[in-house]
Amino acid sequence: MTALPTRHDEAWRYADFAALATVWPVAQQAIVVDAGESAAHTLVLTGAGTEVRDLAITLGEGAHLSLHVLNAARGYGRVAVRVALARGAQFHFGAAQVAGADHRVEIVTEVVHTAPDAISRQIVRQVMAGRATGNYLGRVVVDRGAVGTDGEQSIRAMLLDRGASANARPELEIYADDVKCAHGCAIGELDKDGLFYLASRGLPPAAAKALMLQAFLAEAFAGADDEERLTTAALAALEDLL
Amino acid sequence: MAGFPQSIPFFTKSPIMLTIDNLHATVADKPILKGLSLTINAGEIHAIMGPNGAGKSTLGYTLGGRPGYEVTGGSVTFDGQDLLALEPHERAAAGLFLGFQYPVEIPGVSMVQFLRESLNAQRKGRGEEPLSGGAFLKLAREQAGLLKLDADMLKRPVNVGFSGGEKKRAEMVQMGILDPKLAILDETDSGLDIDALKVCGEGINAIMRRPDKAVLLITHYQRLLDYVKPDFVHVLAGGRIVRSGGADLALELEQQGYEGVLA
Questions:
Q1: Considering only CB atoms, which chain A residues are within 8 Å of B100?
Q2: Which of A78, A172, A176, B14 sits in a 20 to 30 Å window from B59, CA-based?
Q3: Taking the domains of chain A in order of start, what are their residue ranges?
Q4: What is this model's ipTM?
Q5: Which residues of B touch A201 (CB under 8 A)?
Q6: What is the structure's pLDDT at B13?
């Protein structure tokens, strides 16, 4: 595809087209994990300006991939992931988006279960401040015959300021019987009782918020090979917001 | 902040720890405290008792600075400072500890990390050096031992999965670690079985019964006062202190009920 997409294209409906035009066309990065193999990838976007990544992932029979993303781009940051899972493959996706000012970050996933008994897990945590926007569009497709599919999406966002927004759209497209697909989605604010409790012990407001948000984001990175690096980078991004 | 020598406070040590003068406070525009006055000296333990809805918890939260508890009149002086001018975390750094009736659960945040950051934030606020990880853990283990709380519980997320009794004991462990000048303990005895009540009571005595500290116990019942002997007992009703006396006033209340004593 060389023509710039438009807002009519579902996967691009929240995109920043002016920013996108500066980097278009974006080369697709292919990741193949062969049958029975395991792999782990980490993607960290923290730069200023526009960063757009497009991953096309193929998982062979019984292959495992764990993919972790921190999208804290200071401008426009987009990570698109398309995954095809063969029989018994497993895809674990943990992502955090952290943005402030008028930055826009987004994650778009399409996870296709092409054969029976594959497992996909997606955990996405977003912290938006200022007038930032965080988007997650996640589609799980279960092809005809992909029985025994187990798919899960857990999407949560915290808004720190009135002007911040988060869009979350988990989507299921199921053409097989006997599948298990769950999704949960919540957008909220930090618990005020918790913040007062922390303050009453001596934590200044910014430190109290940072502690709670760190715990919130940690859910996305739990168990990652790169957990420490991701957590440190996420914390640095949080500190810029608070 | 480093590099500045801390000046030695230049005042004569006053025995007065807390002065509440004609305090009025509202919650959601509803007046709850209506002219409450109370003086607590260093070395004293005061108990505030009163019927449901008298304003006991409101008093604790107002002194702690909880958002939504609005002071509409009066003043509070704590250790020579205008308490009401301070943010909640500054009140903690000044030496105030608020023990919660319902300690809040905070998933994902470990007790150890939370308490170490809190203590070091307080120390920073007072111009003191932060405590090292090792020194902090030693202190935390000591205090947990005092309250017979398994030190491994401190590795768990704040109050998550703690039983009612464990939460209250954990509050006392926090108090021991933070080492406040004044503790306001809101219904620390609620949800405790007899053994836990004794442990908490002994913990309060061990940590706070000192000539330079003071305690304000907010309670419904006499039973905690069997372990923590108050020097003064006050009855709060309708947003004001309506009667004050010694430890025997609590016994009188226990026998006659609030209605009998207030009649």
A1: 197, 200
A2: B14
A3: 10-189
A4: 0.91
A5: 89, 92, 114-115, 118, 174, 178
A6: 54
